[in-house]
Every structure is written in C-alpha cells, then in structure tokens.
Amino acid sequence: xLEFRQVSYQYPGEDFDLIDGLSFRVAPGSLHCILGVxxxxxxxxxxxxxxxxxxxxxxxxxxxxPIGGHRRCCGYMPQRDLLFPWRTVWENVAxxxxxxxxxxxxxxxxxxEAALADAGLDGCGDKLPRALSGGMRQRAAFARTMLAGGDxxxxxxxxxxxxxxxxxxxxxxxxxxxxxTGKTILFITHDVEEAIFLSxxxxxxxxxxxxxxxEILVPAPMPRTRxxxxxxxxxxxxxxxxxxxxxxxxx
Length: 251
Prior knowledge:
Low-confidence stretches: none
CATH topology of the largest domain: Rossmann fold
Oligomer: single chain
Helix content: 25-40%
Strand content: 15-25%
CATH superfamily of the largest domain: P-loop containing nucleotide triphosphate hydrolases
C-alpha cells in the first residue's frame, strides 16, 4: 500500500537531511504506529505522502504507483481537528468533496451524514463544532479524513490533546473502525502504550535523522482489549521501546 524508496528530505535553511535515504513498505489493510521522540521527523513522513512536502530524493509509491499520479492517494488527519468554527459539522466533514468538485450540495451532505453516522455522530451534522466534545470533534475529523479518498489513512497524533479516559475510548473506537473498513492505517505517536495497544507492529524511528524504521511485532492478537497490556510479553515490549527512545534523548 505504501512504499518509500531511498527517500530524503531537507527543510529549507537546514544543513542536514531530516529524512536520509529511508526505505520501508507497508502492507494493505495493516495498522502500524510510527513511534519516536518529538521532533525526529515523524510528521515529515506524512507531509511527504500527502503531497504537502516534496522529497529531496527518492520515490514514494501508494498502491504501487508514484504519488505524483494520485490526486487523492490518502487521507491525512493532523494533530488538531482543524474544524472550521463557522461551518456546521456536516459542512466540515464534506470539505474534501467540495474541494474535489463534481458533487452537488445534496450529494455532499448525504455522504457527510453517512460518514458521521459511521463515526457514531448521527444527528450531529447541523451542529457547530463548539457544541461537540473533544472526542466527538476527533471523530468528525476522522469522518472527514475518510471522505478524502484512498485506502491509506495517515493519523498524526490525533488523540494527544484528549483527556486520559477519552483517549482510551478513542483508541478502542479506532481499532473498531479499522476492522470494519479494512483501511491501511499509519498512526504517529510518541506514547509507547498507545503504540503497542493499536499496532500489529510498531515502526520505531530510533535515530535522527531517520534512516530506517525498525519494525517490532506486537505479541497480542487482534481483536484486542486493554487487558492485553497486562500480559508480561506486552510489558517487556513496553520497556524495550522505552529504552530505545531514551537512547535518543540521553547524552
């Protein structure tokens, strides 16, 4: 579904590559978390896939084709929900269809309302974003991401601003959405427990600049509940991943 081939990226004004000759592949229908410390370049990977940044070198392919040939190769959900406060919830969710063109207002509304119902927000379409809780706003943002097109979803720390209990609920909800839709999901986080709960395998950015992503299988079957986090194998994996991250920040 997604392949990086010797991809490099350097931000203007910097004298080093933040992404340096990176190659990795992601299978269709899989769910992986990309784990790394803040500022190591995780979000840059997503910005390149979504076309917001252009690689300095190398090639990115989605569905076997270079991303330059795709108008809507993925859905990208950044850290904040970025809902426009002056638009109703359904109008926010329908924004990708409005940008793409070719849909009447009635068609946009019907698709947006269906996406909201799938996200557990049936009946919320005519509300303004300020009337929704934090978790509901993130669900609305996820529904908008689904309508952006493509079978690849890129989620950049979407639950980081939520309170602890809402975050747990959203993690469980995301696993259910993944099982139901069959989408390929990449989820950026710096939270080790979140990474091992959500992932089939964790992709660890163990150094900066990012030259490789170490893939570590999670020893818990899907479907999964939070009870799996108490398993000794999961606890050992958590400590291993914490150790890898500490090496990045300790002198």
